Structures are given as structure tokens and as C-alpha cells.
Amino acid sequence: MTLEPFCQISGLRAASGLVFTADNLFLISDSSQFLYRYEIKNQVLHKIPLGSEAKENLPKKQKPDFEILTEHHGQLHLFGSGSKAHRNQHIIFNINSGFYSIYNRSALHQQLAALAQIPEVDLNLEGAFFYKNQWYLGQRGNGESQKNGLFQCSHNFEPIVFYNIELPKIQNVQATFTDVVVVDDQLYFLAAAENSDSTYLDGEIAGSLIGCIELKNLEVLWTREISQTQKFEGICLYQKTENALEFLLCEDSDSEVSESIIYKLIVH
Description:
By secondary structure, the protein is mostly beta strands. The protein is built from 1 helix and 21 strands.
């Protein structure tokens, strides 16, 4: 594996998810009510407000906590983590038209917590993908219940089942999902180890890893540490070559500076 800086984006603080499409990089931040589009070739950042009074860099008590950004059939799906009552938004953004719709997923999040047999305070969605006509949502098991896994839902978000997925530790701290992306029939995921049992309060970072799951049976095929100091929060496929997969990653640096470094991870 090779991990190296890919680009540096000014005007965006703490990216939490990203999607690459047609030489554009779409990004979200958990403290922002904007969708960001970065022109890679021209190095220009566009800010798309998601609402008439959209704000950036909101305090923790007010932030929408957008932790999920994924693309499906020309539409971007943004999801709040569901870890608090005001973090239940689901926004569907049409890439070509720029139109978007906003949904409240409070009822869904209640159903998901019940399905996983965890209190709602332990729900912390951090990844999503569409596979074989069904939605899957990644649950980060960093709450007291420590249930890390995948929710399987119908195409219109009716919960079906929760699959518990165990991950290794980094520096003796449990790693839990921070994002997922599908390549063919395999799921590549990021997981971070953070020394905290709260979905709300941050803890000391012990590192991040990447792993691969076979979607046919949800077996974890392999995992590998990529850092013992950084918390990587977003992953997307950049390009697929004959001998390697190239992913783009974003990290939560816990910095107050409005600047984000995007990394490229090459998996041979």
C-alpha cells in the first residue's frame, strides 16, 4: 500500500465524506450545511448551500453531523449520523440539475436502533452504499454498546437485518467503521480507533485502518493499519487500474483551520 497527499483544499474544514466523479470531488463536512464541489484540474472550490440559511463551522451542539456521502444513479446522498435528534437529515442532491430534497429520517433511525438492540444514543451511521437493489448503512460501534456492523435495508429504506462485524484493535483501542465504498462485489472500509465510548464526544486517536469485506457472505478478508496518528473519515474510489485500486481519503484533523488535505491510497 502507498499513502500520499493528493491535494490540499482551502475553504473547507474537516471533510467527513467524499465522492469522485467526472474530474470533480464532492465533499461534506460534519459541521457544515453546505455541499462542496472541488474542481481538481482548476483547483477551484464551489460551495453549494443546502437550505436558505445554510451555515458553515457550526458548533457541536448545532452541527448536522453529515458523516455519509455516497453516489447512486447520478444522485448524491448525504446522511446525518443519527447520533442526536438534530442529526437525522437525509439529503438527495441531483448532480446534473443541482436540485435537492431533504428528508427527516428520525423514524428510520429509531427502527435501526431497535433492530440492532442498542439505545438510540449509540446509533452512529458513518457509511452507506447501494448493492443489488438494497441499501446498506454502516454503524460505527463506538458507543457503550460497541455494536459495529451493517444495516441492510430495502431500496426505500425499510430495515431488514443488522449484521455485527468485528474489527481488530489499534494500539489496544477498538477500531470501528468511519466509511465504506463498494468496488465490484467487495466492500472496502475505513475504521478508526478513538479512545472514547461516546458517539458524541471525541477521544484520543489511536489510528486508522483499511479493510475489505466479501459482500457475498460479509466475511472480513483483510485489514491493514494505515496510520497510528490520523483519523480517516471518508473514502471513495478514484480509479481502478490493472494492478491496483486507487482511493481518495479525507481525515478529521480536529483543526480549526479551514483547510483539508485529501490523500490518495493505492492498494496493490
